[in-house]
Amino acid sequence: MSIILILFCVLSFITLATAFLTIYSRNPIHSAIYLVICFFSIAGHYLLLNAQFLAIVHVIVYSGAIMILMLFTIMLMNLNNRNDVHKPRITRLGAIVLFILMCVVLIGIFINSKPIVGEYISTGEDYQSIKVLGKILLNEYMVPFEFASILLLVAMIGAVLLSKKEKITK
Amino acid sequence: MNNILNQIGIENYIFLCVILFCIGVFGVLYRRNAIIVFMSIEIMLNAVNLLFVAFSTYHQDAQGQIFVFFSMAVAAAEVAVGLAILVSIFKNMNTIDVGKLKNLKG
């Protein structure tokens, strides 16, 4: 076993375990913290695949912005004492059965389809530095890039409008 | 430069991402708290992003990573609007249990 394979196994274990604990833990704040660890390990996967810029962006956007937003919302709602929701047993059983079935079906598809995995080529040319990514983003994907900015603007306006206090007009 | 997938193999990434995606689906089905449901959706998005990057390395092509940028932008927008909606639901109904939000049921 090479050191990279060991690193991959450790990172995968952390990712899966923290993702499961996110769902399983009762306290929403614990879930959020487990999710942060999960996102960091996914950034580690990106680093392992040599996509440095993506790893940095992932840490900034997911572990930074999105998780702070979620933690703020959780603390705003003060959910700590009202998370003892009684779930019907049939719901839990259904969820677990569906999880196992979905895992079996998806993994079975990928095992049985026998994908044609060719040789792992390495062309040697640079394809994931910031320079190359920026060139592709602003040449070939110019229009989607602008649409993404419009989408973010609309989302910002929508979030502000939704969370603004309504004036009571009577 | 050696391809990193020589030592790991694309199949391992496929299995990891499938299991991660299934965990996300499990979270959506299992939990009633709307914020945890949101987190599960994030987990599913991340599983797909990771597979995009793995195949981008496999093909030695940058287009997969560009897709990941766009999906990150969409995820950020989705979380901002969704959490605003959740806060206004909480202000009106004083709960975010998805089992109790059935005013539209008639």
Automatic annotation (TrEMBL), chain A:
One of its GO terms (molecular function) is quinone binding. Keywords: Cell membrane, Membrane, NAD, Quinone, Transmembrane, Transmembrane helix. One of its GO terms (cellular component) is plasma membrane. It holds the Pfam family Oxidored_q3. It is a multi-pass membrane protein. It catalyses: a quinone + NADH + 5 H(+)(in) = a quinol + NAD(+) + 4 H(+)(out). The keyword Cell membrane applies. The chain crosses the membrane at residues 6-24, 31-49, 55-78, 90-111, 141-162. It is found in: Cell membrane. It is an enzyme of class 7 (translocase). Its EC number is 7.1.1.-. InterPro entries: NADH_UbQ/plastoQ_OxRdtase_su6, Nuo/plastoQ_OxRdtase_6_NuoJ. NDH-1 shuttles electrons from NADH, via FMN and iron-sulfur (Fe-S) centers, to quinones in the respiratory chain. Couples the redox reaction to proton translocation (for every two electrons transferred, four hydrogen ions are translocated across the cytoplasmic membrane), and thus conserves the redox energy in a proton gradient. Belongs to the complex I subunit 6 family. This is NADH-quinone oxidoreductase subunit J. It comes from Flavobacterium cellulosilyticum.
UniProtKB/TrEMBL annotation, chain B:
GO terms for biological process: ATP synthesis coupled electron transport. It holds the Pfam family Oxidored_q2. It is found in: Cell membrane; Membrane. It catalyses: a quinone + NADH + 5 H(+)(in) = a quinol + NAD(+) + 4 H(+)(out). The chain crosses the membrane at residues 12-30, 36-55, 67-90. Keywords: Cell membrane, Membrane, NAD, Oxidoreductase, Quinone, Translocase, Transmembrane, Transmembrane helix, Transport. One of its GO terms (molecular function) is NADH dehydrogenase (quinone) (non-electrogenic) activity. One of its GO terms (cellular component) is plasma membrane. InterPro entries: NADH_UbQ_OxRdtase_chain4L/K, NUOK/Mnh_C1-like. It is an enzyme of class 7 (translocase). It comes from the Bacteria. Its main location: membrane. Its EC number is 7.1.1.-. It is a multi-pass membrane protein. Belongs to the complex I subunit 4L family. NDH-1 shuttles electrons from NADH, via FMN and iron-sulfur (Fe-S) centers, to quinones in the respiratory chain. The immediate electron acceptor for the enzyme in this species is believed to be ubiquinone. Couples the redox reaction to proton translocation (for every two electrons transferred, four hydrogen ions are translocated across the cytoplasmic membrane), and thus conserves the redox energy in a proton gradient. NDH-1 shuttles electrons from NADH, via FMN and iron-sulfur (Fe-S) centers, to quinones in the respiratory chain. The immediate electron acceptor for the enzyme in this species is believed to be a menaquinone. Couples the redox reaction to proton translocation (for every two electrons transferred, four hydrogen ions are translocated across the cytoplasmic membrane), and thus conserves the redox energy in a proton gradient. PANTHER family: NADH DEHYDROGENASE SUBUNIT 4L-RELATED (PTHR11434:SF21), NADH-UBIQUINONE OXIDOREDUCTASE SUBUNIT ND4L (PTHR11434). NDH-1 is composed of 14 different subunits. Subunits NuoA, H, J, K, L, M, N constitute the membrane sector of the complex. HAMAP family: NDH1_NuoK (MF_01456). This is NADH-quinone oxidoreductase subunit K. It comes from Flavobacterium cellulosilyticum.
